[in-house]
Write a structure and sequence with these properties.
Layout: E1 2-6, E2 9-15, E3 22-23, E4 30-31, E5 34-47, E6 50-62, E7 72-74, H1 89-113, H2 120-128, E8 140-149, E9 152-159, E10 164-170, H3 174-183, E11 189-192, H4 196-205, E12 210-213, H5 215-232, H6 253-261, H7 264-280, H8 286-293, H9 297-305, H10 327-335, H11 341-350, H12 357-363, H13 365-368, H14 383-391, H15 399-411, H16 413-431, H17 437-445, H18 450-461, H19 463-471, H20 477-492, H21 499-520
Parallel strand pairs: 2-6, 8-11, 11-12
Antiparallel strand pairs: 1-2, 3-4, 5-6, 6-7, 8-9, 9-10
Length: about 525
Amino acid sequence: MSVDVSDAGVAVRARTRSGVPAACTGCGRLSEWCHSRYVRRLADVTLAGRPVHIDLSVRRLYCENATCPKVTFAEQTAGLTVRYQRRTPQLQRLVQDVGVVLAGRGGARMLRILSIRLSRCTVLSQLMRVSLPPPVAPRVLGVDDFALYSDTYGTLLVDATTRLPLTLWEGRDAEQLSRWLREHSGVEVACRDGSLTYRQGIAGGAPDAVQVSDRFHLWQGLSRRVQDIASAHRGCLPAALPPAGESGPAPAEETAGKSMEDSRAARHARRLFGAVQALTRTGRSHSSVARELGLDRRTVGKYAQARTWQEVMRRPPRKASTLDPYLDYLQQRWDEGQHSAKILHEELQAKGYLGHYQRVKMAVAPLRRGLPLDEPRERPPSPREAARWITTHPHRRNLHINDRLPRLLEHCPELRRTHDLVRRFAAMLDHHDATPLPDWLDDLAGSGLAPLVGLAGALREDQHAVAQGISTPYNSGVNEGRITDVKLQKRLMAGRAGVPLLRHRVVLIAHLRRRYADRTTVSPR
């Protein structure tokens, strides 16, 4: 064997020993009958940053088995050569692992840093040659969907015990899930969301499995209904503000309602609400109404389902101004006779104000017209904020929420009823006790609030799985983590990954992490 080192790389020349028997690649019989020799050029992992090439002289031998279809065969060197491959097994594993982690373009760039030049297509082809681990039927299966692209969704199956993904496919089809469960029998527990599709798929493929409705999705569905109720009672939200005497010039409910109705957004919402309601009452479809009014079909559906125009009107986000701490100083300097906005801006900059001059100019504009300076006023909570107040655990609410939420609940009986029902359901989740569930569903259905009545009907159809989700420790948390990983892999491939490639990467990268984590784990002495 000889080794040549140069700037271009490391060249190794070697040859196999003569007279050593080699196994036939067809029948496995040993043979020493040499036919000829030829040189195989192999690429190996880099050495000191230099590419390594091995020129290996190997024998071609006759197969001495008369019944073997092969007449001659090339000998293979264990750990160095593989049939029809010009890379050593060590380099092949490196290429495949880089492809699993970084996919095509990213993998090609990383290999180029390691002085291994391969195209992105080669990296992807080597990745797809890796066989997936054989799927084993898990005892606890997690089923969840994820957004594949646009309006297309996919299904991800995860072994909740090992936390490893099993497979994924495009679509949310009950029959496909049933077929997979029949092919992999042995599932005892299936965790899912409230989807009717997955419920039917599990029942058809594993009828003996215990279905568990995930508690996160249960709480998420309840929170959305709470926000719908808060949106329907938007007029009650200003009652959460403290009286004017307690926290400065806070707007009264009547003033807030009047200013909201006179705004441009309110006039636009009223006009669209009236037009959509008038057309949909005649029995026309949402698509035809959307074409006539020049709106999106989903916008028409939102206005058609609303009971009042206040439910669909968007409120501007509440943002605190950076000028608020300096308003007292502006009033003082104005009373002292300084009416130049430019000079006032320079004085505020000396005091630490980092805002633009235009904001100061707009702030002193009322003073020029003989009006009082606009004081910062607290706005009423948005429906989303009110829903978050109600769904937050009492021990985790801050002083701001504890001051305003009781005032809001006292003013609005519907929100107070909603709050009581939410807290009762939260108690069931905290204590893992589903015994009060039937009574709670009865109260939910009799609440008189349309969003909660609809939720009660949906939960009754899936009551056994809901009870299992409340009382058992099984949940879909593992699926949510794996779905986050799926989205990461999609972004790394700029969203251009097909389902087979995405399946390969999601499954293999989880096993790759597990394998290297096991290698680095140090056992205690």
